[in-house]
Amino acid sequence: MTQAGGWQGRYFEDFEVGDVYRHPLGRTISEADNTWFTLLTMNTNQLHFNAHYAERSTFGRVLVNSGLTVAMVLGLSVSDLSQNAVANLGWDEIRLTHPVFVGDTLYAESLVLNVRESESRPYAGIVRARTRGLNQDGTEVLDYKRTVMIYKRNAPQDKGHFPEPAEPLRPETGTDPT
After folding, report:
1. Residue 63 burial (CB count, 10 A)
2. 96: phi then psi, degrees, rounded to nearest 5
3. Helix (H, G, I), strand (E, B) or coil at 97
4. What spans are recorded as compositionally biased (Basic and acidic residues) (predicted)?
5. Considering the domain 12-151 in this protein, what is its CATH number?
6. Any idea where the domains of the chain sit in the sequence?
7. Fewer Cβ within 10 Å of end Cβ, the chain: N or C?
8. Distance separating alpha carbons of residues 128 and 154, to the nearest angstrom
């Protein structure tokens, strides 16, 4: 039986300066997302969880926690930028350029700015990218630069971690009742 391969993410050798990745997934932010993230991070600013208070603010409604906006856009970029990361090395110049509200859908795209070999780890390289988050209307809501250490394709550290199943998958015999 043939084992089909899936998306493995980009390795250091796959990055070129000037590449633009429109990350494939979008994510709509729910009220639960915003409330849970705000509680989890112990953010006590009422703009993020008190609708009555937020109605009287400049925005007139609950504002999505900016930490959640950053985390969501970062997460949307992982499949293309850091699926094979050794470590995040830094985020710079984070700018929140437009408010985000419950019900907004976020998308992300990234531009590769710099690619270089790691001086301390021969199995990895350093990639610097500019990532921005867009809402459903195409309005930029967030912009930042991120530096990530990425495994090279031949690095042994990210290989062989899937456990060998005690019982392999086998095709069923007979007809499928569905």
Report:
1. 19
2. -95, 105
3. coil
4. 155-170
5. 3.10.129.10
6. 12-151
7. C
8. 21
Residue type, 143: D
Instruction: Name the nearest CA neighbour of 147 among 110, 174, 121.
Output: 110
User: Residue type for 153, please?
Assistant: R
> Using CB atoms within 10 A of its CB, is residue 79 exposed (0-12), middle (13-18) or buried (19+)?
middle
CB of 69 within 8 A of CB of 48? Answer: no
Q: What is the pTM of this model?
A: 0.87
Identify the residue whose tokens are 């070999």. 117
Indicate the SS3 state at residue 95: strand
CB neighbour list of residue 101: distance below 8 Å, 6 or more residues apart:
29, 59, 61, 62, 63, 64
Encode the chain (178 residues) as per-residue pLDDT tens digits. Answer: 566 677 788 999 999 999 999 999 999 999 999 999 999 999 999 999 999 999 999 999 999 999 999 999 999 999 999 999 999 999 999 999 999 999 999 999 999 999 999 999 999 999 999 999 999 999 999 999 999 999 999 998 888 888 888 988 888 776 666 6
For tokens 């609950």, what's the residue?
62
